[in-house]
C-alpha cells in the first residue's frame, strides 16, 4: 500500500466511479483500476461493489475508507511539518561578536556552515562590546557572542560558552629589554603588571571593565598611559613594535603566537579570566535556524579550544555539551 493507492481510492469514493476519478486525476482509467485491484488484493477483501452505474463501498470498503482518510491526513501533516522544519533551517542567522572572538571563530565557523549546513546563511558582524549589545537590543543581529561584563539582565537570554584565560601579550622583539626579561615566563602575577605600560581600552568596553574589576579587587593600580586607538589590530601592531603591552585572551593573538610575533604569558595570582556567553534577545522566539547556529557555535568553540587557540575551560552541562544533531534527528525531536 502506498500514498498513490490511497489517493486513487479516496478520489474514486468521492466521484462514485473509476471513470470520473480518472478524469479528475487526468490519468488513464486502466491505471487506476490496476492500482485499486492491487490494493484490494493487499487488504484481502473487496473494497468496491462494481456495477454499470459506477462503484459503491462494501462493508470492508467503509472500514478501510475511515483508515485511509486518517492515513492521508497524517501523511499531509508530516509533509507540512517537515517543510516547516526545512524552511526554518534554511534561514539567515546574523551573529555579532567582538574582534578578539571573531579572530578565533569567524573563519572556522564560516567553513563549518559552508561544508555541513548549506541551507543556513551566516552573516557575521564584529565591533566593540557596546556595539554588539546595541545590535542585539535593536534586533540587527540574532545572536551575540559577548562577555559577562556587557550583559543587560532582563533583555538578554544568555548561555555560558567558555571561560577564557587572560594573558599579558608582549611583542617578540629581541632588541626589547621587556621582551628579554619576559620571554621565558609562562605566567605572571597580577601585581607585576603594574611595572609595564599597558595599551588598554576604556571602561566603556567589556575588557576595560574587566581590568578595572581586577584592579579594584586586588588594590593594584595598573599603568594605562599609552595612547591606544581602541582598535584591536592597531593595538597589536603597537605591541609588536614595542610600544606597550596588552592584556588579551589567546583568541585574539593565537595566530601571532604561531608566527612567533608575540608571546602570551598567563596572568595568575589571581588568575585573570572571564566568561564568554551566547546571548539572544529575551523578547524574541528563536527560529530553528538560530537554535541550530547556537549548537554550531558551541561545536566550533570546542574545536578551537582543543587546538589551544582559545585557552580556557568549556562550560560544563548538558546545554553546553549536547552533540550537534542532524536535520533528521531534529525532525524526530520536534515531532515528539
TrEMBL record:
GO terms for molecular function: DNA binding; DNA-binding transcription factor activity. InterPro entries: HTH-type_LysR_regulators, LysR_HTH_N, LysR_subst-bd, WH-like_DNA-bd_sf, WH_DNA-bd_sf. Residues 1-58 form the HTH lysR-type domain. PROSITE patterns: HTH_LYSR (PS50931). GO terms for cellular component: cytosol. It comes from the Bacteria. Pfam families: HTH_1, LysR_substrate. Keywords: DNA-binding, Transcription, Transcription regulation. CDD domains: PBP2_LTTR_substrate. Belongs to the LysR transcriptional regulatory family. This is LysR family transcriptional regulator. It comes from Alteromonas pelagimontana.
